[in-house]
């Protein structure tokens, strides 16, 4: 039983802390031996298509269009396409007011992936930038992303996601904290070899490498980037190109979003099984398993096993160390419970929302797993309610 406990504890610690520390140590050695990696060629300014998939975004779409048209990129080298399949509000009428934007619309709603696949057939430039409809980009975002494609080994460039200050509560703090840590890991992943999955808020792709993912794909950005990875191309990271969005409007909205992501994670792992073979993909298997697979599989299971095995070891009087670890676990989950109660009341207390958000994410993994295997998670995207940004 002690073996189960310590192995479970190791898996959890490695997944969330150990991998990052080990990655940083390897990066430091790489820097000493080879120096810092190059950041792209600013003179590389190829033709590009800016593609946005939107569904019932009448409240935000005008701001998104104005932000997109303000990109600091030669006007004769960028084309804008907005695809709004299934939208039933005034989104299409608003887009039609901007002649610079090509509008693609199909009254049938088949999900974001189907809409993007259809729109990609209208992309005739060597590169395409995908951006979510509810995000705002910095003016230099497209230029910064394109610089990396001067390297022919680069197939995808991921931008940065920033969570804007809002009127939200602990869900805003938790989401912001999580993305700061993820951004750090992305930076180190890319410096070692390749980013482990790009966020759909802002992603640039070498058009010829795009494969039409299955229309029932839940995590479109994840599948697109990894399938290009599997062709031998790198996914780079450009933190200076960023997409800003507000946090989820409520704890319930954040919970639904997390469950959907986790359900999509299980779907993606099933479709990316070859990546588990280090002999076939020696450059990315370790990163993929450490950064993605463990978090969606063994780490959540290990949390439960650590609780059960610790309790049995205390009952069996296996040693004082297990009393200490047991008390530590009780304190941690107690703090998570307090964090949950505070979050329900829109309160922000840092020392409580960190353990709360950690437990919150892992509970979402269990629920997402159940929803996926029961086939209850739809690939049709539901527009999440977001918080109001602080002006």
What does this structure look like?
The protein is of the alpha/beta class and 391 residues long. The chain has a domain at 48-248: Spore Coat Polysaccharide Biosynthesis Protein SpsA, Chain A (Alpha-Beta Complex), CATH 3.90.550. It is 50% helix and 13% strand. The chain has twelve helices and eight strands. It has an eight-stranded mixed β-sheet with strand order 3-2-1-4-7-6-8-5, sandwiched between helices. Helix 3 links the parallel strand 2 and strand 3. Helix 1 (2-34) runs antiparallel to helix 9, helix 1 (2-34) crosses helix 10 (298-315) and helix 10 packs across helix 11 (320-344). The chain is globular and about 75 Å long.
Blueprint of the fold:
Layout: H1 2-34, E1 48-53, H2 61-69, E2 78-83, H3 91-95, E3 101-104, H4 112-120, E4 127-132, E5 136-137, H5 141-147, E6 154-163, H6 170-192, E7 202-206, H7 220-229, E8 234-245, H8 251-271, H9 285-296, H10 298-315, H11 320-344, H12 350-373
Parallel strand pairs: 1-2, 1-4, 2-3, 6-8
Antiparallel strand pairs: 4-7, 5-8, 6-7
Helix pairs in contact: 1-6, 1-9, 1-10, 6-12, 8-12, 10-11, 11-12
């Amino acid at each position: 039983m002690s073996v189960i406990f310590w192995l479970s504890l190791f898996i959890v610690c490695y997944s969330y802390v150990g991998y990052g520390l080990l990655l940083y140590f390897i990066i430091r050695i790489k820097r000493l031996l080879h120096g810092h990696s190059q950041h792209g060629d600013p003179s590389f300014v190829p033709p590009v298509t800016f593609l946005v998939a939107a569904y019932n975004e009448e409240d935000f779409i005008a701001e998104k269009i104005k932000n997109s048209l303000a990109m600091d990129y030669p006007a004769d080298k960028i084309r804008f396409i907005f695809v709004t399949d299934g939208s039933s509000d005034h989104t299409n009428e608003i887009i039609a007011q901007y002649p610079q934007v090509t509008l693609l619309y199909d009254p049938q709603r088949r999900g974001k992936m189907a809409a993007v696949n259809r729109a990609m057939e209208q992309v005739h430039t060597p590169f395409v930038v995908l951006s979510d409809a509810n995000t705002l980009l910095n003016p230099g975002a497209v230029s910064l992303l394109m610089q990396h494609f001067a390297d022919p080994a680069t197939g995808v460039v991921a931008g940065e996601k920033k969570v804007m200050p809002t009127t939200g509560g602990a869900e805003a703090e938790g989401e912001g904290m999580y993305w700061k840590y993820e951004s750090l890991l992305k930076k180190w992943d890319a410096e070692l070899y390749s980013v482990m999955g790009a966020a759909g808020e802002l992603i640039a792709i070498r058009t010829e490498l795009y494969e039409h993912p299955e229309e029932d794909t839940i995590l479109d950005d994840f599948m697109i980037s990894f399938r290009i990875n599997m062709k031998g191309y790198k996914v780079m990271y450009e933190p200076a190109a960023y997409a800003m969005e507000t946090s989820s409007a409520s704890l319930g909205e954040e919970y639904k979003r997390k469950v959907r992501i986790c359900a999509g994670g299980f779907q993606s792992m099933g479709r990316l099984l070859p990546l588990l073979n280090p002999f076939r993909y020696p450059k990315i298997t370790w990163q993929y398993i450490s950064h993605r697979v463990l978090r969606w599989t063994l780490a959540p299971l290990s949390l439960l096993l650590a609780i059960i095995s610790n309790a049995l070891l205390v009952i069996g009087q296996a040693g004082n160390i297990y009393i200490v670890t047991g008390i530590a676990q009780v304190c941690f989950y107690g703090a998570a419970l307090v964090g949950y109660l505070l979050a329900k009341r829109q309160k922000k207390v840092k020392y409580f929302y960190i353990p709360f958000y950690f437990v919150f994410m892992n509970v979402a993994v269990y629920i997402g797993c159940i929803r996926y295997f029961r086939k209850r998670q739809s690939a049709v995207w539901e527009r999440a309610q977001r918080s109001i940004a602080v002006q």
